């Protein structure tokens, strides 16, 4: 389309001749004589010559003589010569004589000589005489001489010399004599000298004499000297004499001196005499002196005499002095005499003096006499004085006499005075006499006076006399006057006389006047006489007048006389006049006489006139006489004239006489004339005489003439005489002439005489001449005589024409 046509298209006016119709009728779903019809026609949606038709008909689904047809035709979508057809027909799916056809034709998608065809036919799926064909032909998709076929060939995808062919044929998969071939060749994908070939053949998968071959070669993908070959052959998978080979070689991928080789061979997987080898070598990946070798050999996995070796060495990856070695050997996994070794050494990773070693040895996993050792040492990773050591030893896990040790020390991580130590020892896991110790000390991590200590000891887990201690102290984390202490003690968990204590105090975290205290005490969890206390106080967190207190006490959870209290008060968090209070009290949850109260008040959070109140009270949930109230009021949240009220009351949920009310009103949220009201009332849900009403009205949300109303009423859901109504009307949402109405009514769902109607009409949503109507009616769903109708018509909703 030229620029003049585009400009003319953009200047077209609304089109009162346009029409769009959708239609659907359903009769007696599940009846052998039933019929289902869908139909849609669109005319002149931006093109006076356009006609688009969709059609579908289904008759007697599940009957051997049935037929299902889908049809669609599109003409002149911006091109008067264009036609697009889609077609599908299904006859008696599951019948040996059935046929299923899919067809699509596209002509002149902006080119009168083009044609695109897709075709598929299936006959009698599951019948040995059946045929299934998929075919696609494309001609002149940008080139009138081109042809592309699947089953499949592509010519001139941007290059008149190129050819791309894909072909697939499958004959009798599962038959010992079958053959399946996949083939693809590409020539001149931007390079007239290039050739890329992929080939695969499979013959009789599962047959001991079968062979499967995969092959690929690429030449001159941007480099006339390059060659890349991939090869794979598999013969008789599952046969002890089988062999499987994978091979790949790459030369001159941007470097004429480079070579990269990958190799793998597998012989008789599952045979004690088998061998599996993997090998890879890389040379001159940007460095003619470099060499990288990977090697792996596996012999008779699962055999006590087997050996598995992995090896890798890298030299001069940007550093001619460097060497990186990785080594691993495994012998007879599962044998008490076996040994497994892992070793790695790194030298001169940017530092000729550095050395990094990791080492691990495992002997006879599962044997009481076994030993497992891990070791790592790092020296001079940017610091010639540095020494970092990690060590771990485990002996006979599961033996009462066993010991497990972990140790780590770091010195001079940028500070010659620093020392960091971590230590852990475990002896006889599961023994009542167990002692487990963890220890860590940090000194001078940038501060010569600092000290940080962590300590933990556990003795006899599960013993009534058990004690577990955790301790941590931090001094001078940037402040020589500061101190931070954490402490925890646990004694005989699950014993009525036990006690658990947690304590933390922080002083002078940047403020010499500040103090922060946290405390928790638990005594005999599960005992009616127990008490649990939590307490926290914060003073002068940047404000010498401020105070913040949190408090919680719980006594005898589960006792009808119990009480649980939560309390918090905040004063002067940046505002000396402010006060914020939160309060909650719970007494005997589950008792008809109980009461639960939640309360919160906020004053002067940046506004001396403001007040925000939240309130909730619940009394005896589950009692017919109970009442639950929620209330919230907000005033002057940036607007001294505004008020926002929320209210909810619930009385005796589950009682036929109960009532539940929700109410919300908002005034002047940026508009002194506005009002927004939401309302809901529910009475005795589940009672045939009940009524439930929802109502919402919005006025002047930026438009003094506007009104938006939503309404819903439900009466006695489940009663044959019931009625449910939904209604919504919108006027002047940016257009004083507009009106939009939605309506729905349902009467006695499930009754053969019932009717359900949905209706919507929209007028002048930006166009005073427009009208859009949607309509649907359903009568007696499930009745063989019922009828369901859907209908929609749209006229001139911004439609344009000549």
Class of secondary structure makeup: mainly beta
Q: Roughly how many Å is the radius of gyration?
A: 41 Å
Number of alpha- plus pi-helical segments: 1
The biggest beta sheet is recorded as: 50 strands, antiparallel
How many beta strands in the DSSP annotation? 52
How would the global form be characterised? flat
> Approximately what portion of the residues adopt beta-strand conformation?
over 45%
Distance between the termini: 16 Å
What share of the residues lie within helices? Answer: under 10%
Low-confidence stretches: 1-14, 172-176, 796-802
In quaternary terms, these chains amount to single chain
Mean model confidence by pLDDT: 60
Describe the protein's architecture and organization:
InterPro entries: DUF3311. This protein has 802 residues and is mainly beta. It is 1% helix and 55% strand. The radius of gyration is 41 Å and the shape is flat. The protein has a 50-stranded antiparallel sheet, with no helix packed on it. A two-stranded antiparallel sheet has the order 1-52.
Features:
two-stranded antiparallel ribbon, 55% strand, single chain, 802 residues, mainly beta, 50-stranded antiparallel β-sheet, disordered C terminus
Secondary structure: elements and pairs:
Blueprint: H1 3-10, E1 13-14, E2 19-27, E3 35-43, E4 51-59, E5 67-75, E6 83-91, E7 99-107, E8 115-123, E9 132-139, E10 147-150, E11 153-155, E12 163-171, E13 179-187, E14 195-203, E15 211-219, E16 227-235, E17 243-251, E18 259-267, E19 275-283, E20 291-299, E21 307-315, E22 323-331, E23 339-347, E24 355-363, E25 371-379, E26 387-395, E27 403-411, E28 419-427, E29 435-443, E30 451-459, E31 467-475, E32 483-491, E33 499-507, E34 515-523, E35 531-539, E36 547-555, E37 563-571, E38 579-587, E39 595-603, E40 611-619, E41 627-635, E42 643-651, E43 659-667, E44 675-683, E45 691-699, E46 707-715, E47 723-731, E48 739-747, E49 755-763, E50 771-779, E51 787-795, E52 800-801
Antiparallel strand pairs: 1-52, 2-3, 2-51, 3-4, 4-5, 5-6, 6-7, 7-8, 8-9, 9-10, 11-12, 12-13, 13-14, 14-15, 15-16, 16-17, 17-18, 18-19, 19-20, 20-21, 21-22, 22-23, 23-24, 24-25, 25-26, 26-27, 27-28, 28-29, 29-30, 30-31, 31-32, 32-33, 33-34, 34-35, 35-36, 36-37, 37-38, 38-39, 39-40, 40-41, ...
